[in-house]
Every structure is written in structure tokens, then in C-alpha cells.
Amino acid sequence: MDKVVASRFPEELLKKMDKTVSRGTFRNRSEALRAIVEEHLREHPSLFLGDGAQSLIANAPTLSDDELEALGDTIFGESSIIKLVTEDRDWS
User: Fold this and answer.
1) Digit-coded pLDDT (tens) for 7-22
2) Ranges under pLDDT 50 in the chain
3) Rounded to whole angstroms, how far apart are CA atoms 83 and 79?
4) What is d(CA 36, CA 42) in angstroms, rounded to the nearest whole number?
5) 71: phi then psi, degrees, rounded to nearest 5
6) Which of 11, 17, 21, 40 is packed most tightly, with the most Cβ within 10 A?
7) Residue 49 to residues 26, 46, 55, 65, 68: CA-CA distances in angstroms?
8) Distance (Å, rounded) from C-alpha 48 to C-alpha 46?
């Protein structure tokens, strides 16, 4: 069952969201927010890591490449561990 959540947003953010609604990308603000939150949570699985996973990650430098990839598959599912490690990294 869906729950209602009340939130406050800066006017500029609401304008951007309303633009997606007026363009027909979403039917309304509620649909836009739901899709944006779902996408963000899907793209950032590390937000849900527990203490046990943190311990495994702390030991990751001792793992072989294959073991690290297997651990990444277990924790992050479809996301590649290489993609997650390099995501948002400034290489300059």
C-alpha cells in the first residue's frame, strides 16, 4: 500500500519538476518524485549497506580481482563493482 509523505522543496527544484510534468515526462509531481527517488536509490545501493557489508569491504584490498568482483555482485547486484568504484571519481 502506498503511503503519503509530505516534504518541502526549494522553489527552483519544484520549477524543474513542474517542467518535466508540463513536457509530459510525468503525469504529475507525485509520479515525478516517485520515479526520481526510485532511480536514485537504484543507482546508489551503497546507501543500504549494513555493518557486515562494511566489514567485508574493509577487507577488500586482500581479495583477488575475481573475489572482489564476486563480492560486488553479491552486494550490488547488477551494478559492476568497477563502475561503482570509479563512479563520480575526479581523475584530474
Assistant:
1) 999 999 999 999 999 9
2) none
3) 7
4) 10
5) -65, -45
6) 17
7) 31, 5, 10, 21, 16
8) 5
